[in-house]
Structure formats: C-alpha cells, structure tokens
Amino acid sequence: MASTDDIVVSRDREGRVVAFNEAFASIVWSMFGAEARPGLQTTDFLSEPEKSRWDGLLAKVLSGEDHHEEFSWQVEGRTRHFELALTPIRAGGQIIGTAEYTRDITERRRTEEQLRQSQKMETVGRLAGGVAHDFNNMLQVISSYVELSLQKAEAGSTLEKYLREVRRAAQRSADLVGQLLAFARRQTVSPRVVDLNEVVSATRKMIQRLIGEDIDLAWVSGRELWKVKIDPTQVDQLLANLAVNARDAIGGVGRLTVETGNFISDQEYCAAHPGFAPGQYVRLAVSDDGRGMDKETMGHLFEPFFTTKGQGKGTGLGLATVYGIVKQNRGFIDVHSQPGQGSTFTVYLPRASEPEVVAEEEAETAALRGGTETVLVMEDEAEIRKLAGESLESLGYRVLTASSPQEAIRNVAEHDGPLHLVITDVVMPQMNGRQLFERLAPMRPGLRCLYISGYTADVIADRGVLKEGTRFLGKPFTLDALARKVREVLDQAQGDPPLNP
Length: 501
What we know:
The chain is α/β, with parallel strands linked by helices and about 500 residues long.
C-alpha cells in the first residue's frame, strides 16, 4: 500500500480511518492542513452538504455495493481531478468497513482535452483546405483581369484608383486564404536550412513597425544556435502574428521580447507536456507584458476565427496561423499566461540534420522578358486558360491551349513546330499534371514543365510534383509572376536535363 501513488485508506463502519498510505497523509495535509492518523474522521473537515453526501456513500458501500465516481477538488489553489473507488471490507461474513482507492487523473484529463482540441482543429483544417482550391481559382480570374485593366487605364484616373482598390482587396483575400492554409498545415512552402537568428534579425524592423513606437522591442539572440529547416517566409508569418497579438494585449506602452535558444526535450519534459516529442529543438519565444489571459481564453487560443477583439477588429486567424505553421514544420508551441502578468508564446522547431545552404536571391525587380518559344497551356478553367494564354502571347510567345489532358496530347501530336514548355494544372480528372507530362515528354525530348494549382500542398504532394527541382506556381498568381516563372524555366542552361516531372 505504501508503494503506490494512489491514495489508499481503509475505514471502520463509523467512517474512522484505520490504515492509510503516504499519499493519503499528503493529500489530507494539502487539503485540510491536518495530520493523518488512525481514528481520524475526515468528514469533520467537510461542509454540511458534502458531509451528508459522503455519509450516504459510506452507507451504500456498507450495505454491500461498490461505488465508482470522478470528482474535482481544489488543492493548493489548483483544480485537480480524481477517480474514486469505494468497496466494502468483509471479515467472517460481515462487512466491517470500507476500502477507498483514489487516483489523481488531472494529467489524464489534460491529455484527453488536448487530444479533443487537436482533433477539432484538424477537422476545421481539412475544411479550410477543401475550399481553398475554389477560392484560389476565383481570385486568380479577378486579379488577372484587374492587372489587364490597369494596363489600359489612364494613369492617375479615377478608374485606375478604383482598380487598385480592387487589386488590394483581391490580395487581402488571397492572404486570408493563405492564413487558412497555414492553419490547416496545407501551405505550399519551400523549406530550407536556416539560422533562426539571422531570419529573426532581418524581421526586426518589420516587427517594430507592426507594434508601434510605444512598445519597446527587445531582441535576445541565443549563442551557437542550431539550424532549423523551415521556409523563412513562415518565420516572418510567425513573428508578425505573435507581434500583433502582443501589441493588442499590451494596448499602449509596454515591452515585447523576442528570444532564441537551443533546447533539449527529454522523456521527463515530454511526460509533463503532452504532445511533445523527445529531441533537439531551437526555441523561439515571444513575450509581452500585456494584460494576459485566463484559462478559458487559453483553451480557445488557436481556434480559427476565435478573437477577444471587438467585431470587425480582427479575423481571429493570427494565432491559428501560428499553430498551423508550427505543426506543419513538426514543431510544438507552449503558452504561459496569467491575467495581469503578460504572456509568453514559445515555439519549438526541430534541429536540422543537414547543413545550411546559402540561397541565391532572385531578381524580382528585373524587367519582364518575353520570348519566341512555344508554350502549351493546359488548364481546365476556361477563364484562367484564356488569361494565361493572352498574357504570354503579349510577351511574344507562341501559345497552344488545351482544356483537358487528352486535348493536350492530341494538340502536341498534331503540332508540327517545336514545343519548349508545358504549363499544366496539377489536379485534373482522369489524368493529373505529372502523368500528362510523362506522356508528353517522350513526344518532345527536352520539354520542360511548369505546374500550377490552387489546391493545397498535401493534395499536390500526393501527385508527386513537390519534389526538389520541380517548378511550381501556386494560384492565385499575378500575370507578372507567371511571366517571370516561364522565363526562369526556359532560361535553364542548354543541355541541362529536364526538370523532375
């Protein structure tokens, strides 16, 4: 009896303690400030309603019935949950008392609640990813026509001003879809090995602009920081959303601290933090001295569209985005907060097992260049196919179009001239984009491929088109972005092997 963590005690028929273990002595002291001893009547410490209920339970057990229940109790200022089993003690055919077994199930309850929360968020994430494709296709058409209209609008005219507002609204809508996909862990990303200190340092000016001059920004960089593998733009998203959340929590003059460091999660730590896995991590912590949060608020913190702000003052997607990015990168997030004492959000990202690769910067500001190559646009959405084709033709390319994979194969077979590039949607009925390219490549040696899609990353990955070296452009894209990507693919050095299909 002494070796178990469960609370074990036996009582006589009058409810007096006969024997007990150390766990019982500890809980009696914590709850009642009394010393456990034989003959103790714990009902003396109960209120009248509680005493009456307990006497009823003992009477039930003394009549020969077992009793099981779960209950909650305040212990040292914290709510703890227990599982209780009462059984009769028999001797010589008589019931001479009761045996009481009580187990602390607080951590089990916490783990179960976290699992329910995780399952709920996963369900919402799947829903968010499911609608993204249709939204992205619609936004693609809207933004493309606005681009074309702006090219024809007179500079400084009222029409140009209106069109720019429409373009801004389309971009905000695209950003909103992007946030939903980040929450759903279905963003299409380009992770690479990076130094988190360098990425965070590069965003300090952006963070300061977001939080304003009234809030002091402190930056504490960890020494000899391990590398992590993540898309740097996702770190920007993490910091931007956490900074805005902190700014709103501070609501005036205050302090925001961003800190990095190495962290090793062992079995003991994981046991105390359900959902964490053992391993080496890089820690990114964002702390504020704002108003803090109560437990009820923290229970809904990462749910999409949950916000404590007034109507129209927030989408409720900021922290949901943070959660999705962290999970997409196999990391964890921990939150500590109390009303009036500020909050700390700590993100743990796995240590990268591969060396850092210095990425070359793309010349995004370079002038658009066209060409005379022949390009096949395979897109089942008529408006997008028409817009992409006309845009490329305006840059000098010869364009073939197809509305289905079968039509694309037929057009290529009937085309007498050269074919340099196929632009194809990824997800299509009967044949996906990868399969189409595999059919076309033997017909035209040296043919290159650019994939486009409004579907989410998990759907695209299933089609095998997110391999390293594969060219991909996610919808909605600007016509300028399409033109640059087409030129980039075509400008690969002569003699290079075609990109992975």
